[in-house]
Amino acid sequence: MKLVSFDVWNTLLDINVMLDVMAVELSRLMGACIIDVVEGMMLTRERIKRMRAGTQGDPERALEESQEMLAELLGTDVEVVKRAAARATLNVGDEIVIPGAKETLEVVKRKGLKITVTGNVMFWPGSYTRLLLERFGLMNYIDRTFFADEVLAYKPMPEMFEKPLRTFNIMPEEAVHIGDTYAEDFEGALKAGLWAVWINPEADEVRRIHERGFEVPGVEGILEVLEELEKGKPT
Amino acid sequence: MKLVSFDVWNTLLDINVMLDVMAVELSRLMGACIIDVVEGMMLTRERIKRMRAGTQGDPERALEESQEMLAELLGTDVEVVKRAAARATLNVGDEIVIPGAKETLEVVKRKGLKITVTGNVMFWPGSYTRLLLERFGLMNYIDRTFFADEVLAYKPMPEMFEKPLRTFNIMPEEAVHIGDTYAEDFEGALKAGLWAVWINPEADEVRRIHERGFEVPGVEGILEVLEELEKGKPT
Questions:
Q1: Under an 8 A CB cutoff, do A145 and B82 touch?
Q2: Could you give phi then psi for residue A183, rounded to 5 degrees?
Q3: CB neighbours of B23 closer than 8 A, spacing ≥ 6?
Q4: By percentage, how much of chain B surpasses pLDDT 90?
């Protein structure tokens, strides 16, 4: 194994912490009830996740589309959505970092593997996610970031997984991607020929679920997977 | 007059303050001498400004191109340039706000005019500039932001000036744009049919220099221009 690709949201950073802070900022800027804002965000999020699982929607406009959909559903201006995202990026606290994420990155880095981040975007640009990874010290372990609004593709599209491989001149079978969304992360990585690790919080232990795939209860499960793969005889 | 469009860099925020902080972060991340980094940034900046004045270069890749050019000239990875931009956005202090900028926005806002920001991008995305405008309280006066990497055009292209007009359903002659770069801001706005105000720090006073154009010594000069235009008999 030469490269580990990490999903960001609910793998390294907690999406609910970010969405909560953004909802507070949105309700302040709009003078609206936070309950309505949270409901609007959840509805929009579900709609977009469904669209993307089927790779519908224009990858070049995926971010703008998500911001416009949210603004429309909340009955506000798209600039207000952008402002709330900026404020949330500035104000969110370090409880956004998933427990064990930093330590996991550190161990993978020590093994001498390349570390990349491969993330979809919704409501805020990849540049804000990069800024959060920088703010909380995770960028010190990451060699390269690949965000959907910069690559102009999104998971599960193969392009999102192939770009990091091309950048480091690495074969698909020498790379493993870990993430929490089955369709985007697990199926997407497998389809592009990588090894895949699905974070399933309901799993009891690390378990092989595919020729090139594992399920793990949390992000630190990648370490056990890497050890299995090094032994050359996966469970 | 119904709308005032502001350039950002050297109109509302001081580009040299931002570039200095980014140079410090770049030299730290690279372990390089800051003098070399500053020189590399200045060289790259001049090359890009020249390209844009002639509207050469692909507007869809303008940001990435500037980051890649800088990385190449400094002999570093493009991710290091992105990280330095993120750190500078987080760490720069309020000396970045041009004296008088906030007060000027406040007066224009009180007049009941729409306020937009129309900015080119270089080295960092428009989303970071929006975050800086938010951090230092300027977004409270701004109705909409139009950044080159989001509009997929750049000043002096007419599209950059037409987009705000379409958004608010305003005629070109009902809008005025103010900025410090003659080719991008002044000539660009005039060509798109708007009134134009050129910030020329060497000017002694507000002076009419074109049928629809003025030069002013600083950003607060827009207030005198607006008064002249309200009187209907510009100096």
A1: yes
A2: -70, -45
A3: B34, B37, B38, B41
A4: 91
Structure tokens at A192: 């592009």
User: What's the CA gap between B57 and B35, in Å, rounded?
Assistant: 28
Token pair for A201 = 């919080």
Selecting from A87, A124, A134 the residue whose C-beta is nearest the C-beta of B86 gives A134
Q: What is the pTM of this model?
A: 0.95
- Rounded Cα–Cα distance for residues A187 and A191 (Å): 6
- When CB atoms are compared, the residue of A90, A130, A134 closest to B135 is A90
Reported for B206-209, long-range contacts at CB under 8 A and 24+ positions apart, including other chains, are B206/B235, B207/B235, B208/B234, B208/B235
Q: Cβ of B29 under 8 Å from any chain A Cβ?
A: no
Question: Chain A, 142-171: which have a CB under 8 Å from a chain B CB?
Answer: 143-145, 150
User: What CA–CA distance (Å, rounded) separates B153 from A197?
Assistant: 40
> Which 3 state secondary structure label does DSSP give A150?
helix
Residue A54 pLDDT exceeds 80? no
Within 8 A of B28 by CB-CB distance, chain A residues are: none
Query: Strand, helix or coil at A66?
Result: helix
Query: CA–CA separation, A85 vs A25, rounded Å?
Result: 8
Q: Nearest by CB to A79, which of B87, B135, B145?
A: B145
Neighbour tally for B71: CB within 10 Å = 19
Choose, out of B29, B76, B131, the residue to mutate when testing the contact with A (most A CBs < 10 Å): B131
Instruction: Work out the pLDDT band at B234, boundaries 50, 70, 90.
Output: very low
pLDDT per position as a tens digit, A163-190: 999 999 999 999 999 999 999 999 999 9
Contact A130 B86 (CB under 8 A): yes
Has residue B233 got a pLDDT over 60?
A: no
Long-range CB pairs of A229-232 (<8 Å, 24+ gap) are A229/A1, A229/A176, A229/A195, A230/A1
Tokens found for residue B63: 């940001």
Task: Return the exposure string of B14-53: e unless at least 16 CB atoms fall within 10 Å of the residue's CB, then b.
Answer: bbebbbbbbbbbbbebbebeeebbbebbeebbeebeeebb
